[in-house]
Amino acid sequence: MPRAGLTPDRLVAAAADLADEVGFDQVTVSALARRFGVKDASLYSHVRSLQDLRTRVALLAGGEMIDRIAAAVAGRAGKDALAAFAEAYREYALRHPGRYAATQIPVDQDLVADAPAFRRTAEITYGVLRAYGLEEPDLTDAVRLLRSTFHGYCALEAGGGFGAPRDVRRSWDKAIDALHIALTHWPRES
Predict the structure, then answer these.
(1) Distance (Å, rounded) from C-alpha 150 to C-alpha 87?
(2) Which of 49, 122, 132, 150 allows an S-S link to 183, with CB 3.0 to 4.6 Å?
(3) pLDDT tens per residue, range 32-55
């Protein structure tokens, strides 16, 4: 019988908070059970496994992140949309490091197909890139460029990997300028 007050949504939200506090890799069923003052077994009536819990955190975080990105890009196009997208991405990654780490885990493709947040992410990302006149297969290549640039920059920044005295924000802005130029002059597939 499920313990009163515990629900899957409440557990996932607490696991996401825990991830931000201690790191996504440190989120365990035991750590979450301690947070609620219950035994590990009490949680298994709400989540199937640690992998299930982590996947749910990834889906929650992905939804939160794309909501922020969607709000930022609304009514914008071209470089303005790209810069707003990038800024919302970076802000989420730096403000919610554990949740952000969750968005980077591989998720079963059947779950992704059923997750509205993942569909919305694709729609918004592709929408920003279509303003540059890109079509498949260039769209996929451009998405991979954006994701690797944003993720790499955020990971390096969060880990203190930028040691030069140049302001990190100014470098970020230059990276967005460079991406805009690259997208504007994309080497289109014949």
Answers:
(1) 9
(2) 132
(3) 999 999 998 889 889 989 999 999
**pTM for the full model?**
0.91
Whole-number Å distance between alpha carbons of 174 and 180: 10
Residue 59 near residue 117, CB atoms below 8 Å: yes
Beta-carbon contacts of 81 under 8 Å, excluding residues fewer than 6 positions away, are 73, 128, 131
CB 104 within 8 A of CB 139: no
Q: In the predicted model, is pLDDT for residue 31 greater than 60?
A: yes
Backbone angles phi, psi at 22, to 5 degrees: -120, -5
Place of tokens 């949740």: 99
- Does the pLDDT value for residue 2 go beyond 80? no
The encoded tokens of residue 155 equal 């990971």
* pLDDT for position 119: 85
